């Protein structure tokens, strides 16, 4: 019998999940799955969850929350055979969208019964793990303000972004990979990712491949206010590469000097990183349940 541990974030996405838990129990009974539950509290969740996984030895751990919850679960499963499943219940749900995991609760739950397994790359960021994306600059500042506020959901994020945009000043970064300086200058934001898009569906890395052993550093250089609508349009039409304000580098490892110690986030959670940040890909280090039925990959 498959053992599944559900990790439920009760506050993510501003969604009440109590009724959903009854559906989980019924689904597991129907499919003869042995289910256990872990509810996050926002305090020492990583240590407590690690203990739970060590004791219960589940085959699959389901992250039921947003990108922060996915990160919490995924980092404990890296380099282990235990598989990650995602039932998106957050504000942005960036990684699940990138992996084409259904956003609908019932459909995502159905994946537990019928799926394929794919090994995806993850990113090591100065002692942290990033599963979806890490960035510094404007978006990271918006994420920080969002986390400090008490309103969740995509509307709150968009409102904060509009407020911060008016006064944001670009910061200086230096990007070095394999001994070569790839970029040294100011940027509005700098995104390091394996994935294609943010949780808002804005595409920053249109050709990103999540299991190619490489990650991308996407730089949005300072731009005049008159160009902002055009950049947004390109992000939502998969044509950001056509913008004269972007640069992108594919790397296996890199160092970024964040000279101003500008705000940084990893998978939607603000993180305090040193001025010199080290990035390294961990190829195919995480096994994820995906929608297409068929043979196991990678
Ligand atoms: N019971 C809880 N009470 C308060 N905060 C919690 C609780 N459980 C988890 N958290 C906090 O929730 C955050 C993670 O939320 P998560 O990213 O999953 O959802 P989201 O922010 O709504 O969605 P997304 O990241 O997709 O935009 C973490 O900061 C974590 O500390």
TrEMBL record:
The protein's name: Diacylglycerol kinase family enzyme
Domain DAGKc: 1-129
Keywords: ATP-binding, Kinase, Nucleotide-binding, Transferase
Gene3D superfamilies: 2.60.200.40, Probable inorganic polyphosphate/atp-NAD kinase, domain 1
GO CC terms, sorted: plasma membrane
GO molecular function terms listed in the Swiss-Prot or TrEMBL record: ATP binding; kinase activity
Keyword check for Transferase: yes
Keyword Cytoplasm applies: no
Transmembrane segments: none
Pfam family, one: YegS_C
Superkingdom: Bacteria
């Amino acid at each position: 019998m498959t053992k599944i541990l559900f990790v439920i974030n009760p506050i993510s996405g501003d969604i009440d999940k109590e009724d959903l838990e009854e559906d989980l129990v019924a689904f597991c009974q129907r499919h003869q799955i042995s289910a256990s539950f872990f509810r996050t509290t926002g305090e020492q969740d990583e240590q407590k969850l690690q203990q739970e996984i060590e004791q219960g030895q589940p085959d699959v751990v389901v992250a039921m929350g947003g990108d922060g919850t996915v990160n919490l679960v995924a980092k404990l499963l890296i380099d282990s055979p235990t598989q990650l499943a995602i039932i998106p219940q957050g504000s942005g749900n960036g990684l699940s969208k990138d992996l084409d995991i259904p956003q609908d609760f019932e459909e995502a739950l159905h994946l537990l019964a019928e799926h394929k397994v794919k090994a995806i790359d993850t990113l090591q960021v100065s002692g942290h793990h990033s599963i979806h994306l890490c960035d510094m600059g404007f978006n990271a500042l918006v994420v920080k303000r969002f986390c400090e506020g008490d309103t969740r959901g995509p509307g709150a994020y968009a409102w904060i972004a509009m407020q911060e945009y008016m006064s944001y000043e670009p910061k200086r970064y230096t990007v070095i990979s394999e001994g070569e300086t790839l970029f040294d200058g100011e940027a509005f934001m700098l995104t390091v990712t394996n994935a294609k898009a943010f949780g808002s569906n804005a595409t920053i890395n249109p050709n990103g491949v999540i299991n190619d052993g490489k990650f991308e550093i996407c730089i949005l250089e300072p731009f005049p206010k008159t160009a902002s609508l055009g950049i947004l349009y390109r992000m939502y039409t998969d044509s950001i590469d056509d913008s004269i304000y972007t640069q992108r580098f594919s790397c296996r490892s890199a160092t970024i000097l964040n000279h101003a110690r500008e705000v940084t986030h990893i998978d939607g959670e603000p993180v305090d990183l040193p001025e010199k940040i080290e990035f390294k890909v961990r190829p195919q280090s995480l096994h994820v349940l995906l929608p297409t039925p068929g043979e196991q990959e990678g």
